[in-house]
Amino acid sequence: MITRKSKREISQMHEAGKLLVKTHKEIAKMIQPGISTMEIEEFVEQFLKKHGATPEQKGYQGYKYATCASINDEICHGFPRTDKLNDGDIVTIDMVVNLNGGLADSAWSYEVGQVDEKGKRLLSVTKKALYLGIEQAQVGNRIGDIGHAIQTYAEGEGFSVVRDFTGHGIGPTIHEPPHIPHFGLPNKGIRLKEGMVITIEPMINEGSWKSKMDKNNWTARTIDKGRSAQYEHTLAITKNGPFILTEQDN
After folding, report:
1. Which residues, including other chains, have CB under 8 Å from residue 250's CB and lie 6 or more apart?
2. Residue 175, marked binder
3. Is residue 94 annotated as involved in ligand binding?
4. Residue 105 annotated as binding?
5. Mean pLDDT, rounded, for 178-198
6. Which numeric CATH code is attached to 7-244?
7. Is the pLDDT of residue 71 over 90?
8. Cα(123)–Cα(129) distance, rounded to whole angstroms?
9. In this predicted model, what pLDDT tens digit does every residue of 107-133 receive, in sequence order?
10. What confidence tens digit (pLDDT) does each residue in 212-247 have?
11. Residue 110: beta bridge partners?
C-alpha cells in the first residue's frame, strides 16, 4: 500500500536528510586515492552514532554494513572493503539514515583523484538525469513521466539506464511501494499525489544497461565491465512541486 506522509512526518524525514547530507559532505573530503571504502564505512557508523542516528540498511534483509560502496563497474550494493581506492576510480556511496524514526536515502558518486573525460561525462549526465527526473515529480504527473525524462536524456547522451533496480517509496521502512523506474513512457503508471515520499536514483552505465549479480547475492555489476554512476535523492511530492529532503546545494 502506498502511504502518504503528514507534514510532521515529512519534516522528520527532512531532519534525517539534513544529517545524511552532512555525512556525504564529510565523505567528499575523505575521497582520495589510497583510502578504503571500509574506512568510509567506519566513519559513517561513528558519525551517525555521534549525531543520535542509526544506519537503517545495516541488518536490512541480512545486509551487514551501514553503507553500500560500489566501484567502477559495480552498479549498486557493493560491500565496503579494505582494498584501497585507486586514482581514476568512480565510487558510489549509498546509505539510509534513521533519525528519530525519520528515514532519508541518498547515493552519491565521487571522483577518486583524476578521472578521465568519459568518466567525468558519465557523472555529469547521471546527475543531470536525476534532476530532470525530479522535475517531473509533480502532483498529477505519473511515474512514467519521471522515467521517460531520465531515459530520453541519458540515452540521448550515449549512455544506458539500468532497469533491474529502481527508486521506491520510503518510510516507515526503507523500501515501500511504489517502484520508480528510471525508464518508461510518459503518462503511464501510478499518478503522483501530495504527501508521497519517494526516491529517484538513476543508475547510468557507459555500455549495456544489463547487470549480473556477484556470488555474494548483493552486488550488481555491468555485464561488459563498463563503469556505472548513481545519484539519488529522497523527495516529497507537494502541491508546490518536489521537495528534496537530501539536497546538497550543489
Report:
1. none
2. yes
3. yes
4. yes
5. 98
6. 3.90.230.10
7. yes
8. 10
9. 999 999 999 999 999 999 999 999 999
10. 999 999 999 999 999 999 999 999 999 999 999 999
11. 91
- Are 147 and 133 in contact by the 8 Å Cβ rule? The answer is yes
Query: Is 168 annotated as a binding-site member?
Result: yes
Residue with cell 511515474: 143
Residue 89 is placed in which grid cell? 576510480
Nearest alpha carbon to residue 235 among 66, 103, 127: 103
Task: Name the strand (E) or helix (H) holding 17.
Answer: helix 7-30
Q: Which amino acid is at 234?
A: T
Residue 250 has pLDDT above 60, yes or no: no
51 is in an annotated binding site: no
Beta bridge partners of 228: 205
